[in-house]
């Protein structure tokens, strides 16, 4: 399915980020551990030019650990500072701090040579909508400094957050890019909630999900919904609706709700840990 979403507020946000980038030492890029390729915005890669760059694979609690480990090894082999995390977890705070420290060691040494002492690292948190940017900031800053929400597009305007003496963070609105390279990128982003649900046909996306799940994780849908895994397309949503007893007014099966619930079960991890993209 061809999905594109690049609303005006993203063009504006990108322009703002390009302006702010002059004030910044480090770009902390967040990607989704379930789809590390599709969830990396090529525009952000451009922004990291000449800046310290850290790549965090977030929502790792919802991805297969072994695959995430391979991704992190891959990034490290590319010389990228990276770490897998659940941005809600307090346990990872120290590891993130250590990574930021390591990544900024050269900068601190350079500052010192110029006689600058104790200047905090200024880092921009960037990534696609809904990837966990604000959650990470709240976790690091230890209070509700950034608004979070399970909908793309909650963060608006510029927010500097003072974490401690050594670190200042700048939250940024989630941004996508004008044209996705191929259909599977838009589909992956839509599947995991980075794209407004209004711009694609949910039932069609649910069918794509059925095919992805039965191919990558045979048996899971049968376990979870008790449905067959060789269904004709027309029978997939009716089977899920039946399994969950989803009836619309008049007693017909509610296929829209079936699609919604199916996608929600994926996004929230109820279908189990999933890694839809692997490093090759
Ligand atoms: N399971 C899980 N959920 C997360 C994680 N990080 C964020 N979330 C949830 O994802 C949703 C979007 O988070 P938010 O920080 O608002 O994303 P933002 O749009 O990038 O700022 C919220 O419902 C968060 O609770 C994570 O690492 N694991
Ligand atoms: Mg946000």
From TrEMBL:
PROSITE patterns membership: G_CP
One record GO biological process: translation
InterPro entries: G_CP_dom, GTP-bd, GTP-bd_ortho_bundle_sf, GTP-bd_ribosome_bgen, GTPase_MTG1, P-loop_NTPase
UniProt KW Isomerase keyword: no
Domain CP-type G as annotated: residue spans: 11-178
GO cellular component, one term: cytoplasm
Entry keyword annotation includes Iron-sulfur: no
UniProt keywords, alphabetically: Cytoplasm, GTP-binding, Nucleotide-binding
Gene Ontology molecular function terms on file: GTP binding; GTPase activity
Chain sites annotated for binding GTP: 58-61, 130-135, 174
Cellular compartments annotated: Cytoplasm
Family in the record: Belongs to the TRAFAC class YlqF/YawG GTPase family. MTG1 subfamily.
Functional summary from the UniProt entry: Required for a late step of 50S ribosomal subunit assembly. Has GTPase activity.
PANTHER family xrefs: MITOCHONDRIAL RIBOSOME-ASSOCIATED GTPASE 1
Protein name (record): Ribosome biogenesis GTPase A
Source organism of this protein record: Candidatus Weimeria bifida
